[in-house]
Backbone:
């Protein structure tokens, strides 16, 4: 087989989501039997690239893309995943796309079943009798080439995570015309040993002349098996070369980018008075599991928590709000608050603002006034007209209007009337309303997840400034979980980097991008508590 | 500038309003007395209005329409039967029935609420079946309960309650006749309207209080409520008790106006006209206001009232019952379709 023949060539791929540029002029090519690694942090454009490649409907619905694809020199257009499949491209998704109720063989042969032809007609094929025996043999054959022994008649739900991943792979491989295999974070759910086995399998596949596009955040794996590596950052291709030329540190650096602005908080002195302590804190937030976090938070400090998506940074806020089962212990001012309910934690002075503000942070149909006053009214009995009536007291609209006005000028919230429903506001203003709701409870510790998600750049800057003011003037200790490392570096006194749900490193904001990159990928990083 | 409309008429109200107008014109042309019809419509309106309002607490706490309304109604019937059993007459009779009915309703509500929490998200269908299965259970109760007033018992055998107990000797029409105002041909049952306004007013006040706001929040976004430290389950249970208690008051008002306590299978389908009325008023599948309940009740009950004699006159006699069923259930279907379309539109815009 001609190993040097180009299989897939992509030129000047550009994709905009509304005004936001997700991919810009990305070009690359994959030769037969070549393994191309694609590396990038959150929001770097990896998923967009894969979606375009695989003809995901979301691309078409958001206005298509620019750029050209050639397979073996022929220009192609992806409209639907089915078209792409016919071209000989197979994809293994990050989340399992298997049917739990069907057997291994049925899953592997889905949509390409062998059938018994009785009439010999070509019509009504979808009504023809499925040849279970032949399907089983074919599935077993594929599994055997992968070196896996598995009973093909067992149901998917009875398999382990690793086996499911292998079945996914087998399903993509179970076809004669497969030319290109796309793997999206195939090792994300696997442990080290199983990852190594999978790596071996991928290598085997490539040796047979099938090209592979391998997307992962585990830099070691990428360097280990890929022939060439492309690094994406903010939609741009920042590095694209043979993997022999790359180093682990170099890749990490490219991934995060040398965008360190001097931290304005550098060298700020913080009294080491512990206000809150996480002791082996665990949160079972599906898809974002926090395995273990041990951390002492000092009074008046701003602490950042970052990780790649799915590695646990968002679990802290969710866990504190009792959304998911938690483990370990929590201390607040020397008091054990593990067993307290979310309401009692509010009363102690711990306020949480989650990343999904439309689902959790706001009542979209209610007015701005109702939103801002809600928690303070319900939990702290503020804004009550006749406090003696307790829960049956109507709201003191005057006092509430007064505080809404003060938050309006403090946070510069733009609205026409405070009786306007929150859903009419822009993302930035909604976030400010949600923030005002938390501030109305007068918290001592405020945990914010993804404070700037879905907010335009100008509003972002302002919001970050307000967070700093809240910290300095109101003496609120902030814990900010964000995937925007640059924001954290500007704001925080210390940054905790999580990897696979565990604390990988605690770094000062001045640490260089290489250190962050390595820690995010779960490699280096020292626990530095200064 | 954003204007806050107190009440916005939408296409369902126009369609039904137009239909009502056509009925009025037809009624006039076939020589029916419009003043009497108007007087009757007011009575029907205030008789049924409380049932419609009783749907609101559960609806606004995110538990959907209370198709299990028979549970609350049965509680009210128990209250009524106890008052009759001890020969409490006049206004005190109706008040005693209401108070006892509410107490029983709260007790039922605790159990009913617990079941509904277990089927979270499918409260409506569960409520329907709880209502259906609760009635046969209560049929045992009606035959076996130790009531002793001979007027209530089967004349032969002397045990077990009659299916219909006349109230005229006790407190039949006490509210209907109190504060009755006659202006020419038109009579205004001010007593009935006053009770209705009091209950509506209390609900409006309730949704301005802390606990009312908390319930609205649970209904709109349970995750938000939970994140603000609310005990969603407890709030939902309270709203169930509240709904059932209003249902119990509703049947007391209804029975005194109707003049009879109707037991056994009578409350079986009581929820459907009420749900239709609220949906006509413009309530969605997860939120409704007092005003929507009032407008809906008037439109719906008036159509009921007019369509029956007109259908009997123009079409076959006895077609009215068929018409009622078609109207009540058809409107529920229509409103469900509308709300589903709205949800789809909302989903697409996300």
Residues:
């Amino acid at each position: 087989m001609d190993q040097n023949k180009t299989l897939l060539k992509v030129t000047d791929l550009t994709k905009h989501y509304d005004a936001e540029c997700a991919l810009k002029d990305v070009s690359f090519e994959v030769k037969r039997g070549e393994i191309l690694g694609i590396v990038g942090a959150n929001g770097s454009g990896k998923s967009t690239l894969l979606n375009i490649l695989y003809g995901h409907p979301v691309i078409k619905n958001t206005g298509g893309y620019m750029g050209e694809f050639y397979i073996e020199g022929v220009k192609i257009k992806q409209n639907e995943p089915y078209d792409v499949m016919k071209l000989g491209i197979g994809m293994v998704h990050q989340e399992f796309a298997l049917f739990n109720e069907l057997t291994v063989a049925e899953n592997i042969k889905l949509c390409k079943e062998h059938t018994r032809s009785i009439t010999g007609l070509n019509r009504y094929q979808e009504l023809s009798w499925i040849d279970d025996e032949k399907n089983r043999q074919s599935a077993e054959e594929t599994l055997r080439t992968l070196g896996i022994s598995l009973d093909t008649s067992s149901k998917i739900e009875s398999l382990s995570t690793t086996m499911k991943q292998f079945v996914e792979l087998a399903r993509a491989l179970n076809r004669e015309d497969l030319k290109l295999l796309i793997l999206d974070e195939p090792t994300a759910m696997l442990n080290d040993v199983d990852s190594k086995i999978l790596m071996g399998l991928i290598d085997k596949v490539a040796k047979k002349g099938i090209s592979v596009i391998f997307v992962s955040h585990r830099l070691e794996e990428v360097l280990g098996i890929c022939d060439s590596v492309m690094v994406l950052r903010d939609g741009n291709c920042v590095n694209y070369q043979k993997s022999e030329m790359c180093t682990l540190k170099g890749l990490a650096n490219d991934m995060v980018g040398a965008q360190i602005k001097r931290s304005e908080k550098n060298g700020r002195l913080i009294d080491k008075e512990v206000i809150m302590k996480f002791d082996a804190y665990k949160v079972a937030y599906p898809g974002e599991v926090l395995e273990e976090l041990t951390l002492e938070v000092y009074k008046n400090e701003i602490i950042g928590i970052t990780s790649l998506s799915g590695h646990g940074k968002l679990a802290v806020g969710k866990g504190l709000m009792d959304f998911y089962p938690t483990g370990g212990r929590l201390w607040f001012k020397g008091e054990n608050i593990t067993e307290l309910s979310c309401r009692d934690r509010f009363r102690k002075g711990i306020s949480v603002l989650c990343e999904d503000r439309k689902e959790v942070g706001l009542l979209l149909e209610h007015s701005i006034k109702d939103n801002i006053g809600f928690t303070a009214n319900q939990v702290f009995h503020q804004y009550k007209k006749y406090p003696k009536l307790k829960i049956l007291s109507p709201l003191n609209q005057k006092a509430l209007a007064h505080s809404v006005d003060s938050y309006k000028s403090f946070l510069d919230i733009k609205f026409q009337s405070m009786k306007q429903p929150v859903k009419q506001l822009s993302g930035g203003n909604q976030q400010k309303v949600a923030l005002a709701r938390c501030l109305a409870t007068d918290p001592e510790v405020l945990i914010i997840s993804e404070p700037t998600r879905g907010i335009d750049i100008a509003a972002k800057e302002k919001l970050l400034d307000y967070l700093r003011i809240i910290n300095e003037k109101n003496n609120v200790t902030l814990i900010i979980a964000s995937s925007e490392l640059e924001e954290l570096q500007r704001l925080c006194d210390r940054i905790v980097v999580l990897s696979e749900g565990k604390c990988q490193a605690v770094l000062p904001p001045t640490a260089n991008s290489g250190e962050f990159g390595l820690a995010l990928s779960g490699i280096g990083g020292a626990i530095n508590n200064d | 500038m954003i204007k806050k409309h107190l009440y916005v008429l939408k296409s369902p109200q126009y369609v039904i309003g137009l239909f009502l107008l056509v009925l009025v014109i037809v009624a006039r042309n076939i020589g029916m007395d419009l003043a009497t019809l108007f007087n009757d419509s007011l009575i029907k309106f205030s008789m049924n209005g409380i049932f419609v309002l009783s749907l609101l607490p559960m609806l606004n706490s995110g538990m959907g329409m209370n198709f299990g309304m028979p549970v609350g109604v049965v509680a009210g019937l128990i209250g009524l039967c106890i008052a009759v059993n001890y020969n409490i007459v006049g206004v005190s009779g109706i008040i005693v029935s209401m108070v006892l009915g509410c107490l029983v309703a709260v007790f039922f509500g605790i159990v009913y609420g617990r079941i509904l929490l277990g089927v979270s998200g499918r409260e409506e269908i569960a409520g329907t079946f709880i209502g259906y299965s609760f009635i046969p259970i209560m049929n045992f109760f009606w035959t076996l309960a130790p009531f002793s007033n001979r007027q209530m018992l089967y004349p032969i055998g002397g045990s077990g309650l009659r299916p219909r107990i006349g109230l005229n000797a006790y407190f039949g029409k006490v509210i209907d006749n109190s504060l009755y105002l006659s202006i020419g041909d038109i009579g205004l049952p001010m007593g009935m309207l006053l009770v209705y306004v009091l209950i509506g007013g209390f609900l409006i006040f309730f949704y301005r209080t802390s606990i009312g706001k908390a319930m609205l929040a649970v209904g709109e976004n349970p995750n938000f409520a939970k994140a603000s430290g609310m005990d969603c389950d407890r709030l939902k249970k309270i709203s169930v008790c509240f709904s059932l208690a209003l249902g119990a008051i509703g049947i007391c008002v209804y029975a005194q106006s109707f003049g009879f306590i109707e037991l056994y299978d009578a409350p079986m389908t009581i929820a459907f006209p009420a749900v239709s009325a609220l949906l006509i008023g413009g309530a969605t599948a997860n939120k409704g206001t007092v005003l929507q309940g009032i407008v809906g009740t008037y439109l719906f009950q008036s159509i009921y009232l007019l369509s029956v004699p007109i259908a009997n006159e123009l079409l076959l006699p006895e077609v009215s019952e068929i018409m009622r069923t078609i109207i009540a259930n058809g409107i529920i279907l229509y409103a469900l379709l509308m709300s589903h379309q709205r949800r789809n539109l909302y989903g697409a815009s996300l």
Notes: The longest helix of chain A spans residues 457-473. The longest strand of chain A covers residues 6-17. The radius of gyration of chain A is 26 Å. The CA atoms of residues 136 and 237 of chain A lie 43 Å apart.
